[in-house]
Amino acid sequence: MSAGVIAKPAVACRSGALRGAVRIPGDKSMSHRALMLGGLAAGRTRIAGLLEGEDIFNTARAMQALGATVRKEDGTWIVDGVGNGALLEPEAPLDFGNAGTGCGLIMGLVGVYDFATTFVGDASLVMRPMDRVLDPLRQMGVQVVSAQGGRLPVTLRGPKTANPVSYRLPMASADVKSAVLLAGLNAPGITTVIEPVPTRDHTERMLQAFGANLTVEAGAEGERIVRLEGQGRLTGQDIDIPGDPSSAAFPLVAALVVPGSDVTLLNVVMNPNRTGLILTLKEMGARIDVLKTRHQGGEDVADLRVRFSELKGIAVPEDRAASMIDEYPALAIAAAFAEGRTVMSGLAELRLKKSDRLAAVAFGLKLNGVDCEEGPASLVVHGRPDGKGLGNAAGAAVATHLDHRIAMSFLAMGLATEHPVAVDDATMIAASFPGFMELMAGLGATIE
Ligand code: S3P
């Protein structure tokens, strides 16, 4: 539930075959970055396919508070930017609602400016540790004021001149990488980020498209070294944002587990740093055809034809986690219908998302009759291919903890279980997937 919004429970019931072709809403990561770079660049940026979700609206409002103009005209979002180095001091705290990525990236973007910016958020966001972003910013000379030990509300004040750092990421996090690079835009000289484990690279691709001098090189031990020259000129661009693979995951898993289903998901980002779920599901026996691969918005995209499949449990390679970090809740649902055991490990980061996703998934699976074991950074799921006995006949609801991916995962599950699956709130699905209920209903899903 977003701040001030009344919780609305939802129930998914065993459904007939899902069928049809659907367009998935725009990629959330790319939408945040397009608004930020558009708002910063000189001149006009036109964005087609922007995700019209609450998380993205919060980023749009923040960019407006920092001096950019953002409006929608004939279905296209138009952003008039201020020019690199020319953001304005906001008059009020920036409220990011539920959006960790919007908050973290804009901390980098504006935190290095020589004025004060305060960041606030909803009940979920104030629980998230922001020190991972604040630590490199401190090294760049940013003064951090936070009463809650690195949690929101946080006020940042940059130095006269920011210090360009060379920062080795202590964890696999695209948010932290991106915050440092965006901060580097306003520091003289070269800012370097070293990534031992590659994460989604939309920031790098989009910075290059806007004209930044950014290079990526492989280090001696295979690490990615990203170098950005600060204080360069960024120029407005036309961007066409393709569909979000992390959103596609929910109808995709639903189609795999509901007998007889045959669904096509149109226009989905196929960036190799985002396709770990597809790879994993294919290894489990999923019938997913990647069709019509093409290029859009600086990314590979494709249509995905997904048919009901008899899945087998596997051990998911740990080093794949970064390429499917948001998809483990959906994968856990597929695992609940797979023959045998699915072992997921290397999941420590999952506890730091919009909710503690590891705990939330394990709780929801158990509540709905699925045998699973939660470790400190792992989850083992014992599947039940026909869904017999699964679901909650008494109507007990999964606690979603303001987390859209928990809500959508369990609603997908309930389409194939013997008994219904309920979630305590579905309002926050609007953070990332407006129209989820209508899209699923259009495929034949029964969700009330
Ligand atoms: C995101 C990065 C990921 C992901 C989040 C979006 C991004 O988090 O979980 O939903 O757009 O940069 P990490 O920072 O942990 O990689």
Q: TL;DR?
A:
Catalyzes the transfer of the enolpyruvyl moiety of phosphoenolpyruvate (PEP) to the 5-hydroxyl of shikimate-3-phosphate (S3P) to produce enolpyruvyl shikimate-3-phosphate and inorganic phosphate. The protein is of the alpha/beta class and 448 residues long. The chain has helices at residues 28-40, 54-65, 100-111, 131-139, 174-184, 202-209, 245-257, 276-283, 328-336, 357-367, 404-413, 436-443; strands at 10-13, 19-23, 42-48, 69-73, 76-82, 94-95, 116-120, 143-146, 154-157, 166-168, 190-195, 214-218, 224-229, 238-240, 262-269, 287-296, 299-307, 315-316, 341-345, 371-374, 378-382, 397-398, 421-423, 446-447.
Task: Describe this protein with a few key phrases.
UDP-n-acetylglucosamine1-carboxyvinyl-transferase, Chain; 12 helices; four-stranded mixed beta sheet; 24 strands; 448 residues; alpha/beta; Enolpyruvate_Tfrase_sf; binds shikimate-3-phosphate
Question: Could you explain the architecture of this structure?
Answer:
- This protein has helices spanning 28-40, 54-65, 100-111, 131-139, 174-184, 202-209, 245-257, 276-283, 328-336, 357-367, 404-413, 436-443, and strands at residues 10-13, 19-23, 42-48, 69-73, 76-82, 94-95, 116-120, 143-146, 154-157, 166-168, 190-195, 214-218, 224-229, 238-240, 262-269, 287-296, 299-307, 315-316, 341-345, 371-374, 378-382, 397-398, 421-423, 446-447.
- With 448 residues, the protein is of the alpha/beta class.
- It folds into 2 domains: 10-26 and 242-447, Enolpyruvate transferase domain (UDP-n-acetylglucosamine1-carboxyvinyl-transferase, Chain), CATH 3.65.10.10; 28-240, Enolpyruvate transferase domain (UDP-n-acetylglucosamine1-carboxyvinyl-transferase, Chain, Alpha-beta prism).
- Strands 22-23-1-24 form a 4-stranded mixed sheet. A 4-stranded mixed sheet has the order 2-15-17-16. A 4-stranded mixed sheet has the order 4-5-3-14.
- It is globular.
- The two termini are 17 Å apart.
- The model has no long low-confidence stretch (mean pLDDT 97).
- Shikimate-3-phosphate binds at residues 29, 101, 173-175, 178, 199-200, 325-326, 349, 353.
